[in-house]
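sanity check this chain:
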Amino acid sequence: MALIENSSSPLDTASSESNEQETFQFPAIRYNQGDGRILYSFVVDGKQLREFTTISRVKRDENSTELLGYQRPEVIKHIKKIQDYVESDNPLMPNSLVIALKPELIDFQPLSESEKHSNGELGTLIVSRTSNEDHLQPGWIVDGQQRTAAISKALENPKSDIKNFPISIVGFEADDQRDQRTQFILVNSTKPLPNSLIHEMLPSVDKDELPLDLQAKIIPYSLIEYLNFREGSPLKGKIRTQTLTEGVAKDNSFGTMLHASIEHGFLYSFWHQDRSTGDCDMEMMYIVLSRFWEAVSQVFQKSWDKKPSESRLLHGVGILALGNLMDDISFKLFAATGLLDQRDTLFPYDEISEVDVSEALPTIENYVEELLVVKPFCAWDSGTWEFDDESRGWDSLQNLSQDKRKLSKFLSAIYAKESNSKRQSE
């Protein structure tokens, strides 16, 4: 059980009502993990959880530019099941909640008479909370929001016989939300979290602490954030994410397309020559993407604003095929500059200037002209696709590997054939 005290806040020496500070004291074990990671293990009565912890819901700021928070919405059915279990005759909940603690709002006082163990140290954890409504809570729930809600509801239920419910806590010090998001992803990476939630947070976490499979997704999903929220982007608001549910195109379809181009397509050109550094020019990648997709919106204007069920343009199969076509067109147009003849990558711009590269990139008009070559052969929302071996109705193409390959190869082949014919006739 925690001791609760009131005291004047050390954060502001001026006297006012907002100076009052409430403190919670818990018997705890302090220990270290990794490189300077400080953790605390302690027990809290479920009634006190909401007095010093809060949940940071994932959302966008008013301008939809900055990602805030990291927690998904509560799952009511899940909470109700946990609540029923907590209110049962003999509940057992041995798994600890994981809480991020703000270092400036906690203090640890070791027990003077206890022997210091190599694995940990006994003492009292003091958690402070000011009465100022604008002040952040000292604890942010990283793992266990559903359990926290269920325990609170069980204790507040007048029909329940349960009067208290001690729950174990593992707290770690975290200076900012970036650190909290990183730990949230790591803690939940083996659980069925929505992929869109993890993907949307990837641009704002610490890369080095993530497993390799998630590290590889940071650049694609950073570019998706650029495309989805920057002013002037042709795809602004069109890619569906955890915080932008009205988007029409799936984020994982764009993620797959971008990953392919970054790994072995035209966007690979903007990787650092030494891939191990992880450095690349995402701004240049964004210029290429925004110009190409602006051209797509102009050439296929009739299909641009339609849902995937009404058109295959912004459907998974169309996004992958157009991404592959973007690589083909970009390599063809850029090849004339000779900038890629002697090397595989352009970045870093040591031998080649960034200005030269920027000026040599295909323009929107260039992309429009090239896309018009394949337009007569496209059936995004009506008619049929005339493949070499069969005819397929526009809506028969599905988000399947074989359909993605088929359409990608078809558009590449048509583009190569018609471009050659056009060049020979000129």
Remarks:
- Residues 6-18, 67-72 have pLDDT under 50 and may be disordered.
- DSSP finds 14 helices and 15 strands in the chain.
- The two ends are 85 Å apart (CA to CA).
